[in-house]
Structures are given as structure tokens and as C-alpha cells.
Amino acid sequence: MMTAVETAPTAGRRAGRAEISDRSRSERRLGLILSAPAVIVMLLVTAYPLINALYLSLFSYRLTAPDDRRFVGLANYGTALSDSLFWQDVLTTFLVTFITVAVELVIGFGLAMVMHRALFARRTVRTAILLPYGIVTVISAFAWRYAFDLQSGFVNSWFGLGDHAWFSGRWSALFVIILSEIWKTTPFVSLLLLAGLAQVPRDLGEAATVDGATAWQRLRRVTIPNMKAAILVAVLFRTLDAWRIFDNVFIMTLGQEKTETLSFLTYRQTITRTAIGLGDAVGVLLFLSVVLIAVVFIRGFRVDLSQVRGDR
């Protein structure tokens, strides 16, 4: 009798696991079918430029001397990786990415809570919060540049900073670049986190309130654990986007005062110096770093998606 009683729950658990496994397999298959057309189009659009860039990175090749193309193998990669400027740009890119993503995550979560709990004029509140994200990045960058400009800007006069030249030093210039990036893309983070808040079961929060949990305890033990997937997606998307920052740097400083990022270094080597081989090598390294970041996030911060969709 004891054996029979113990066997029944075990069999039930195995059946439950099999059912969840079948459901997950079916959803995965459906996801592949639905995403296949978009993936195929993206591959057709991006495959040739990537392969061509990888091919040209193996040559010493300049636009000013198109006939003087020599195969150099991995020499361009060695030149880039051994140059202190490359690693300085890596550090600058890392600082911009880390600070912007961290600040955007905190502010975006607060804005998401405001949009989620708005009792009246909810559409107006959401539109006002998301408005900066709808502005073209180039226009936004020009607006911030003129606001902090020594001659035409109003920031110095408003805050009584006198003749402080924001773009004449590395850290002050990076401050403006980071500030403009945060203002522009925080609404995107808040939108993703808002979707995550909508997935948090309301009854869990109510049960925690009945049990005497404070607002901070409910946030830390109920809300955040149930929206880990949304947080991961927001951090991943913004990290990949911030790591490739170009527009703000190009418009505000042109990479001067040690504000150059990896994307701008690729542009400068390829377009300004017409060193196609070396520029493509830097571009390939940038692409590989983006892939590495994505792998680290997905593998290192694993989220149980079965909890998000309600499986048990």
C-alpha cells in the first residue's frame, strides 16, 4: 500500500513534466515558424555586408589606392588589438554603456510604475513619458548640443555656470553625451518594463499585503522576481544599443577630447582615413563584441520563462 501511494504522485509529476515539455516544444516550433520569414529577410539584408566586411578585413586596402590591395590575413586585427587607442575607445564605450543602462533601468522602472498605476489620464501620461523616444536621435543630439553650447546654450546661464565649456573636456563632454542618451532612450526601457509589470499577478501582491509585507518587501520579493524576463530583455536590448552608440558622439564632439567610441572608430578608419581593411577589422571586432555581450546575458542571466507564462 505504501508503495502504491508513493508511486502515484511520482507518476503524476512525470506526466506533468511531460505535458510541460510537450507544450514548450510546441511553442518553440510555432515561434520558429512565425519568426522564420523575418529572420530570412534579415539574413538576406545583412549577410552580404557582414561577409564582405569580413573579407575586406583580411586585406590592406584603401579607397585612395584601389589597385593596391594586398592580402594580409589577420594583420589588421593585430594592429587594432595592439593599439592603445582601440582599448581607450573600448573603455569609453563601456563607461557610456554601463552608466546609461544602469540609470535608465532605475528611472525606467519608476516611470513604468507611474504608467502602470496611473488612475486618470493614463493615455496622456504614457504619451508624455514616451514622447522623447519618438524624436529622431540626430535631432535630439543637436538639441542637447545647442543647449550646452558655450555661445548659444542656455544651460550655463540657467545654472550660473559662467563660461564653462562642456565640450572642451573629456568628462564634461561624456556627461552631456550620457545625459542625452538617458533622456532619449529611458522611455523605451520603461515601455518594456511596463509590459513586465502587466504580467505580475495582482493576487500575489494582495496576499503579501494581507500578510503584512511593506511596499519595499512587495517590490523586492513579489514584483521584481515575477518580471525578471522583462528586465533581462530591457537590459539586453539597451546594452546592445548603447554599445553601438554613434550619433551623439558624432554630432556633439566628433570623437574629440577622448570621447570616441568603437562605432566612431570604425567610421573614422573607414570613411575619414579610407582604410577599408583596418576599418572593417574594427567593425568585425565590434560585431563580435555585440554577439559576446548577447551570449553572456542570455547564458549568464537565465530566466525561467515557464514562470512568466504561468506554468507550474
β-strand amount: under 5%
CATH architecture: Orthogonal Bundle
Structural domain tally: 1
Rg estimate, integer Å: 25 Å
Going by CATH, what is the homologous superfamily? MetI-like
Describe the structure.
With 312 residues, the chain is mainly alpha-helical. It has one domain: MetI-like fold (Orthogonal Bundle). The protein is 74% helix and 4% strand. It has 14 helices and two strands; from the N terminus they run αββααααααααααααα. The chain has a two-stranded antiparallel ribbon with strand order 1-2. α3 runs antiparallel to α4. The radius of gyration is 25 Å and the shape is globular. The chain starts with a helix and ends with a helix.
Would you summarize the structure shown here?
With 312 residues, the chain is mostly helical. It has helices spanning 2-56, 75-81, 84-117, 122-130, 137-147, 155-159, 170-197, 202-210, 215-223, 228-243, 247-252, 262-272, 276-300, 305-309; strands spanning 59-62, 65-71.
Please describe the structure with a list of short key phrases separated by commas or semicolons.
312 residues; mainly alpha; MetI-like fold; two-stranded antiparallel sheet
